[in-house]
């Protein structure tokens, strides 16, 4: 049986997850500021509309829609045009309103989803739900209710989450959201030979096989591009790499 997939439209990335996300799935993308979370989210939505004819919704708690239109145009993604065509909506909201709207089957957001036939959604970012409560149990309940509401609407979601650790150990967070979601993608800065690169890996994908290796990616004028595996390096997810013993040997003694 082949399940329907919801692809990024980025070949190298889709091939890591058997063609794309599952339908009605919640997919967490976590990373430090500037790693490319918003870009990846926008690309998922833009490609969804232009390559797969799947309308999209972007809910932002952070930046005004104007900022989104502007940033997307850097990649020549004309979000305003897609909005005018009724295939996209960028909504500036707050976590309390978004939760209430999505939980109400007759709410304004649900109406938009049903009228437009929205299939994909990006939430920028889930971190803002932490402003609603200091109780970790209550936070987990809020996140679970929100995610379930997105699934009820049959949406494939990309949920962005800030992690403030730039290099080194990842900071521990109160939210248990990685346990609730179907897919957990980590974006990281890594130091390699005195330069900063970016790494991406799928830490989990429920109900599907996925590649476990760590890939190097860049944000280019065309958006996210996944380049390669990191060869000859260890400790990538710690943020600071070192050569593998084999690689160190080769560096010291050259090819045998
Ligand atoms: N047109 C572009 N070409 C290359 N890099 C870009 C372009 N536009 C933005 N970037 C880079 O993309 C990075 C990721 O930005 P963004 O997706 O907003 O990150 P995040 O949401 O994780 O904070 C930024 O560091 C920025 O320098
Ligand atoms: Mg961002």
What does this 3D model show about the protein?
This protein has a single domain, classed as P-loop containing nucleotide triphosphate hydrolases (Rossmann fold, 3-Layer(aba) Sandwich). The protein is an alpha/beta fold. Strand 10 and strand 11 form a beta hairpin. It has a nine-stranded mixed beta sheet. Strands 1-2 form a two-stranded antiparallel ribbon. Bound molecules: adenosine-5'-diphosphate and magnesium ion (MG). Adenosine-5'-diphosphate binds next to helix 2 and strand 10.
Concise account of the structure shown:
The chain is α/β, with parallel strands linked by helices and 256 residues long.
| Name of the level-1 CATH class | Alpha Beta
Q: Which range does the strand content fall in?
A: 25-35%
> What coarse outline follows from CA principal-axis ratios?
globular
Q: Unreliable runs, pLDDT <50, ≥5 residues?
A: none
Cofactors, ions, other ligands = adenosine-5'-diphosphate, magnesium ion
Q: And the CATH topology?
A: Rossmann fold
